[in-house]
Amino acid sequence: MKGKYIQIMVCWVMAVMAVACKPIKVQNRTIFPEKYETGWEERYGRCYDSVPYSVVALDLYSEGLSLDSAHRMQGTGYNLYLSDIFVATGSDSLLAGTYRSDTTALPYTCLPGRDYEGTPGGLYLLYVENGKMQYYRTMDSCTFVVRDTTNHLKDLQLTLYYRNEYNANVTYETHFQGVLQPWVKK
Fold it and tell me: Which of 79, 92, 118, 156 could form a disulfide with 43 if both were Cys (CB 3.0 to 4.6 A apart)?
């Protein structure tokens, strides 16, 4: 009888261990917006002495997040920012085409995301709650396609890549369709 009790106890312990050691599936991505509602095209012109191309930036806002008259964020939502986009001609506006991130400063490229001691740069995503930034995620790389449609509408299809908190590669796809408001930086 004692041997049977030990067998039952060993089976029970092994069953508990099997359940306890079962790998936990972790969701591989945070849910970011599928689309952005408003966008600004920030025009810098030829702002780098060593780069003969005009530079623009894209500043996109999800539903619930907007800018006030002083260009401060209001509300709750996401802000996707793509700085230092190098355009192919002398024009200050973002032209149609396919862009990718890299550090060459050649036409049809933009800078990848970087964390500069707690300050995001290049390509990054902010989460803002009640007008205050809660967190940010820099994006390692991206590709995006800009198509001109009628009446100055732009159609942007963006694919962004980053490593999540589990060090897994994640792809984030999103889009914007609408008029990019011009904003000339002085």
Answer: 92
DSSP string, 102-146: -SS--TTEEPPPEEETTEEESEEEEEEETTEEEEEEE-SEEEEEE
For 181, the enclosing helix (H) or strand (E) is strand 169-184
Q: Tell me the whole-structure pTM to 2 decimals.
A: 0.80
Residue corresponding to tokens 């095209």: 41
123 beta partners: 82
Residues 137, 90 contacting (CB under 8 angstroms): no
| Residue 157: count of CB within 10 angstroms of its CB | 15
Condensed to tens digits (0 to 9), the pLDDT of residues 140-166 reads 999 999 998 777 789 999 999 999 888
Long-range contacts of 130-136 (CB under 8 A, 24+ apart): 130/75, 130/76, 131/72, 131/73, 131/74, 131/75, 133/73
Task: Of 115, 121, 129, give the one whose Cα is nearest residue 163.
Answer: 115
